[in-house]
Amino acid sequence: MCEVCRKHGEGKKWYLQAKNYSEDLQHDLEKHGVFDWKFVGRDLERWERIKKAPFFIKALQEPRIAKRIHNMHFGQVLPIEDIEQIFGIVNNVVRLNCICRIPRKTKEQRFCYGVSLTPQNAEAEKVVNKEGSGYQSGPDLFQLEQVSKEEALAQFRAYEKDGLCHSVWTELTPFITGICNCDRSDCGAMQNTLVKGMPMMFRAEYVAELNPDLCSGCRACMRVCQFGAITYSAGNKKAWIDVGKCFGCGVCRSVCVKDALKLVDRAPVPAVANVW
Ligand code: SF4
Ligand code: SF4
Fold first, then answer.
1. Burial of 172 (0-12, 13-18, 19+ CB in 10 A)
2. Which is more confidently placed, 131 or 202?
3. Region 105-117: what's the mean pLDDT?
4. 215, 223, 237, 241: which to mutate for ligand 1, most atoms within 8 A of CB?
């Protein structure tokens, strides 16, 4: 299990703990610290700066910055089965603009979903209307699209077919605010993790496994893997998975018509058991 599960999961996956979606937890955490994107931005700048610093400074500073990031705004990749379990816990799902995609001006920006255990429907409307009552035109709900859990799940499945990988996010860990659908071209956290080596996005609790007897070598899985974990062996005309690079998102499975791919638990795979 990853360090966040050990700290906040009570023996289970941390994002499957209902308490981590609760308003009570959010209020408790806010007593000790305030989430602010500026803090995350500053740590990103620091991370870039210390790259050029002598080795001993890097060795001292990198873990400190990583710890702050993990306590502030941290994410983990997860497969669709775990998304289903999250929808079994929360009672309120709101589709909203993705903060990473806004500056990139992508056409469809609503890949992010706010999830919570706040009161739904009539109760939620009361809260929103009260908050927005000071505005002449009423509350601005343009960017908040309430969707049912079934609708959201269908949208997640469609995104997965398109090669997007799912992830869960905190704002003041372990309080969970949302789940997102990410790709390497648009997701800032994915880029920071993969390109700059800043650990903002942990791997899933799983890793992909290929059955070479079923694989036809069509390479469809290679095209959707956001992490460059699948290559093609010209020798045996089949795909090959580099488990060291695999984030365990499971997206490759959704395009494999031969059922040659599955996810297995990361912990019993010695090469990657402690690779996050
Ligand atoms: S999509 Fe399936 S059959 Fe095609 S290369 Fe990948 S594992 Fe093999
Ligand atoms: S190989 Fe791993 S990282 Fe790549 S799509 Fe499959 S599960 Fe995700």
1. buried
2. 202
3. 79
4. 215
